[in-house]
User: Fold this.
Amino acid sequence: MSLTNPEFSPAEHGILLGIALDSIVSGLKYGKPVDISPEALPDKLVEVRACFVTLEQDGILCGCIGSLEPRTTLAEDTSHNAYAAAFRDPRFKPLQASDLESLTIQVSVLGKTEAIEFDSEADLVSQLRPGVDGLILQDNKFRGTFLPSVWESLPDPGKFLAHLKLKAGLPGDYWSDSIQMWRYTTESFTASVADIRAA
Assistant:
């Protein structure tokens, strides 16, 4: 779910979606992400930010890769994550040229992460904000995240947490006092390849 007060303009949404598509096309043609020219971009898109890029084909997930910590400019992160989502997500086959026309691209820009303090699993579940929170779970070497959009398919907080544990490589009913949890919000925007090209 996107934030109620968008940080980015519709034009900036369009630029980032265009970068994501250009990077996927570059991957199909040249086997690498598209190069970014920061001097031609709005200031907000060259800030150091983290994002996720999610790809769906006919409504079915076919790639999702992102960054949890800001390491490069938002435009560059979008380019690299779009390429990785299309060709490097180990859960799915690499995208083929014939897949492109039925593709939908979503870019989710992450806000700041905030640690959640809790003293039990029930306490943690009671603090979750369905439809709002993206979550990062970590317990020693096990780590996983769900974007806020995952609430659409897992609206129950208890089930959301159980599936996040599974994604992190832990049993769904696992609990330990060493579990750490952070929350973040995203500003997400989505368009089909046809709509991105027409913009």
